[in-house]
Amino acid sequence: MSMLIEEGRTEAMAAARFAGPTLQLIRGAVAENLRRMRTGGPVMAVVKADGYGHGALAVASAAVDAGAEWLGVTDVTEGAVLRGGGIDAPILAWLHPAGIDVVAAVRNRIDVAVGSVDELAELIDDALVAGPARGGARVRVHLHLDTGMARGGCPVRDWDRMLQLARRGRDAGLLRIVGVMGHLPQADLADPRANVPWVMRLRHARDTALRAGLAPLIAHLGATSAALSDPSARFDLVRVGAGLVGIDPSRTVELAPAGRFTAPVVHSAEVEAGTPVGYGGAHVTDRRTCISVLGVGYADGIPRELSREACVEIGGRRHRVVGRVSMDQIVVDTGDVSFPRGSVATVFGPGGIAPTVQEWADWAGTIPHTIVTGIGARVARTVA
Ligand SMILES: *Cc1c(COP(=O)(O)O)cnc(C)c1O
User: Could you give all domains of the chain from N- to C-terminal order, each with its CATH number?
Assistant: First the structure.
């Protein structure tokens, strides 16, 4: 292979003949969306799942530069990556799929949410072994209440025990209790009435925490949908993730698309009418036509189950995806036009002609969140 490379050209130059599949983050769109969702109080930019697929550090820094006061992630390790990337804003981690690493949390100044008495007891034990007694800082804790979802958070019946234990941890100099939080179950309804019971529940939980002597506290409940549609659920901070990258779960507000997903044409050909395309010949051409193969497939996050409307933009027009989605490629029918190798196809992006993330979600029978978080690791992430 390298023998065929002309003298004076490096392999890297040869490899970069044209850009591979790329997801470009549009920072200006993140800033715009943040402005749309800021309705007075501070905003936490949630960048879990690698910033909803767009690159956690890139989205975080775009959000912080646009004024986001906090960052939210699922675990301390993700938070540490943001710290390593120079992010200085307060960070909260709330899920801890591998348990809470107290030492890493304190060292990286990451707040942790705790959602059960059991988890809090364990945190106190770990803090005792690891922390403040040896001159370290206290662990900063947000108490997470189950507000109607049964998907994490302390059940209401355990809340008083949670508060007692939190106070003991604080009085022992191990913890600082800085917040109480919940999460709303009805993110896809832009209907404040659906949130009323959960707003009441968090208010009550906050008030009992304050009466238990845990003031001051930051209370937070709402995510993108509450930030856009329910002032009563905003409390002291809203935690917005989907909205930052342009997704409104309630589909009632147009936000700015923050990603442009492009892929190169890697092969083009003219084929006769009656030509089967792809595995199983699931599509057969009905006329003489040009096809282009794009170098992205289901391993890159293109959904394998797609309706017949699925398309991409090439050369300022939409062209239909035909045949089965393969692991590494898809085929599009480009009609009369033959696009040379290296032509850029836009899978989704802003600008009107290119499909939107929401359209891909509709074609795949899913929600936009799974489209963006499903974009594979070999798709390069860039920033505009
Ligand atoms: C994901 C998540 C958010 C952000 O929700 P969006 O609807 O994406 O804005 C907020 N809080 C918690 C606890 C979450 O898990």
Answer: 22-245 (3.20.20.10), 259-383 (2.40.37.10)
